[in-house]
């Protein structure tokens, strides 16, 4: 009988990869399902001063906003948008209606091509008081998950509310208008606002 000890079996760490990948994918899927629920994605900036905007000109005639526009008296929206974003197109009539009612809307054109952004606004109309281009840094500073995303800002430049995804009629009535009222804005009427189907935002193209 041999006294030589039996060799120890080595644990194969590669066996852990499949369950770890599954857990990661499951978590990402759950986050994507919760994306249209604002309560599941609260903004860490709510109640704080809005971050600075450092935007470039999209095209001549489209003036990029500055920090002075963020802190200007009165309520306003900051809307992250892109021409490649389907939900941005879906919510656009709602932004147009709000702009027609006199609400200042600051646009942040997110990871877009200038010519595509211009074509988008020429086709659908320009609801933005001012809008500029963001290569991605401003989106990081504002903590956005994708586009569209909209922030309600008060007259001191403080963020009162964040909404991820397109602005629908139900979102407008339940979240946007109450937050704007808190910021001191009085809506003339919302009876003429078009009904919108619900949807989720879009992630930026690679």
From TrEMBL:
Among InterPro entries, the record links this protein to: Periplasmic_diS_OxRdtase_DsbE, Redoxin, Thioredoxin-like_sf, Thioredoxin_CS, Thioredoxin_domain, Thioredoxin_ResA/DsbE_sf
- Supply one GO molecular-function term: disulfide oxidoreductase activity
Question: Record's GO cellular component, any one?
Answer: outer membrane-bounded periplasmic space
| A matching Pfam family | Redoxin
- Could you tell me which residues belong to the region Disordered? 187-206
Q: Which residues form the Thioredoxin domain?
A: 44-182
**A Gene Ontology biological process term:** cytochrome complex assembly
Query: What keywords sit in the KW lines?
Result: Cytochrome c-type biogenesis, Disulfide bond, Membrane, Redox-active center, Transmembrane, Transmembrane helix
Q: Which residues cross the membrane?
A: 12-33
State the source organism's domain of life: Bacteria
> Which Gene3D superfamilies does the record cross-reference, listed alphabetically?
Glutaredoxin (3.40.30.10)
Where is this protein chiefly located?
other
Places the protein is found: Cell envelope
Family affiliation: Belongs to the thioredoxin family. DsbE subfamily.
Q: What is this protein called?
A: DsbE family thiol:disulfide interchange protein
State the species of origin.
Oceanomicrobium pacificus
């Amino acid at each position: 009988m041999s006294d030589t000890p039996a060799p120890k079996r080595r644990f194969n760490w590669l066996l852990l990869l499949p369950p770890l990948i599954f857990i990661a994918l499951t978590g990402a899927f759950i986050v994507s399902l919760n994306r249209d629920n604002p309560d599941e994605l609260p903004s860490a900036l709510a109640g704080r001063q809005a971050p600075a905007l450092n935007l470039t000109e999209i095209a001549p005639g489209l003036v990029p906003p500055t920090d002075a526009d963020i802190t200007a008296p009165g309520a306003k929206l900051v809307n992250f948008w892109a021409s490649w974003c389907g939900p941005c197109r879906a919510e656009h009539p709602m932004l147009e209606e709000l702009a027609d009612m006199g609400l200042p809307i600051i646009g942040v054109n997110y990871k877009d091509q200038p010519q595509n952004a211009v074509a988008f606004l020429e086709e659908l109309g320009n609801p933005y008081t001012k809008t500029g281009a963001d290569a991605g840094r401003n989106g990081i500073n504002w903590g956005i998950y994708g586009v569209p995303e909209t922030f309600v800002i008060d007259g001191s430049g403080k963020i009162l509310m964040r909404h991820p995804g397109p602005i629908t009629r139900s979102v407008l009535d339940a979240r946007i208008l109450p937050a704007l009222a808190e910021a001191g804005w009085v809506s003339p009427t919302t009876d003429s606002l078009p009904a919108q189907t619900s949807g989720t935002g879009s992630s930026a193209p690679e």
